[in-house]
Amino acid sequence: MKDTAKHQGLRNQLVKVLQEKGITDKNVLEAIRKIPRHLFLNSSFEDYAYQDKAFPIGAGQTISQPYTVAFQTQLLEIKKDYKILEIGTGSGYQTAVLCLMGAKVFSIERQNELFKQTSALLPKLGIRPKHLTFGDGYKGLPGFAPFDGVIVTAGAPYVPQALMAQLKIGGRLVIPIGDDVQVMTLFIRKNETQFEKHELGEFRFVPLLEDKN
Ligand code: SAH
Fold first, then answer.
1. Which of 53, 78, 101, 180 has its CA 20 to 30 A from that of 94?
2. Does residue 64 carry a catalytic annotation?
3. Residue 193: which CATH number?
4. DSSP string spanning 113-166?
């Protein structure tokens, strides 16, 4: 697993692209500048890893586009030691961004193959989330709640109640909602019962799958 000066150069260019597209959070940009995204992809995509695009990662899933990762992460307004719940570990790239920003990351993945692959990869890269789980993201992780932030990295047909319930007061839930196209939605918890809602444009994700049994 190699990370070269050429990769670093491509990452610097990617960071510029993200800045041009409106990403301003310095800690997000710094994390993207450091993380070797090519190592989260199958080696056949190595040459493309620093384009601002999504790519297949196996099990019919995709690694999110860097712009989408940056946009969602920026909305979380991460501070060091924030407890963040991620739904859809996938390749682990988003997980790595959150870890590098100093968050304590709890992440759930429902595809066992991806769960195993990513659980093995992250420690090799020196990235240590607090907790990786194989399971159903609709349920969240009640045993570790409440969270300062929750980020859903798959398109949700509706907002899972459990994820709202597991947010701290003042906490932020970032979730793309919709079927074919999703509206990026930010909920900020005001108190026990009230959430402020912001809709922030259209994105496309693989679906957040629900087990109907
Ligand atoms: N954050 C990932 C994005 C992966 S795509 C990355 O940067 O690579 C979305 C992921 O959500 C897929 O891996 C998919 O298997 C997972 N997913 C879909 N439905 C889920 C559910 N109900 N619970 C947990 N993960 C789910």
1. 180
2. yes
3. 3.40.50.150
4. HHHHHHHHHHHHTT---SEEEES-GGG--GGG--EEEEEE-SBBSS--HHHHHT
